[in-house]
Specification:
Length: 326
Amino acid sequence: MALDRFGRTIRYLRISLTDRCNLRCIYCMPEDMTFRPRDELMQDEEIFTLVRVFASLGFEKIRLTGGEPTVRANVVEIVRRIASTPGIREVTMTTNGILLPRLARPLAEAGLRRVNISLDTLNPVKFRRLTRWGDLEDVLEGIQAAEEAGLTPVKINAVIVRGYNEEDVVDLARLTLDHPWQVRFIEMMPFAGVTEVQLRLAVRVPEMMARIEAALGPLIPVNGGRLDGEARVYRLPEAQGTVGFIATLSQPFCASCTRARLTADGHLRMCLLREYEVDLLTPLRQGASEEDLRRLILEAVWAKPWGHGLYEGDIPLNRTMSQIGG
Ligand code: SAM
Ligand code: SF4
């Protein structure tokens, strides 16, 4: 069992399959982003070895992310192998949805359970502005494909950016009236690459909630206001779906964080918002045994930071969001 020094049991690993992406969202990476050479990224067999080691330590939930995980060659086979690893109970994915019309069904057949799809606005012009070159229609088709393939309940992730989509929270929340989705609004966080935009244009959850309530009525807490993962969840009157808020800054959830992240270049990162990482790929390539890797992982878990340091101005600048795996 992987336990940190604050008593949190860590069972949930997000694996970034690639730092590449078919979009360039303005809150995630610069337009002229350069990507790592492929040989610096974990190869398929290296991912499977590490997943086996994590599973032997009690990790049971895996979320695949990136970059855009669906642009990774072999993604269906990767899902199949991870989902069939003894001890792994659930494999999910965070994706921009663009390739789901082609991939949703094979991914579901390979053992993928659910998807979170990023969608920040229902306005095609604003969508293009936020993603720099995305086509909204592709994502809408991706959501439909995910539902048809049974990758449900679908969760929609929306990052809110001042001057780009803060008014769109109402239309996005309205989706939950007729769809059994969870639409989750995310406070923008600062990393490397586009730090100035991330700091200057962030919108806080209380403002998002006020806009939604003014237009659509009261947000009624679900689960007695308890967290669902990192989101606080509400329901609009008569709605089929729910609305979630991920308030990293206005209501931090560090105390209940049981996540770890494995970057595409094989570094174990114990807090999204702290630079602390332990390299697992280099020792693996140098012949470390599974026992050696287990020891490295347990040491990293033990050293998991209590929480982020954004209030003290401690911004993680060693990677962009896309390089960490959100
Ligand atoms: N490409 C996939 C996608 O967009 O869903 C997966 C990777 S993306 C880095 C994972 C999540 O992080 C997405 O929901 C995205 O909206 C979110 N994200 C990206 N940059 C962010 C930032 N600066 N602050 C908060 N969330 C961010
Ligand atoms: Fe790509 Fe996702 Fe980052 Fe957008 S948020 S640029 S889709 S990795």
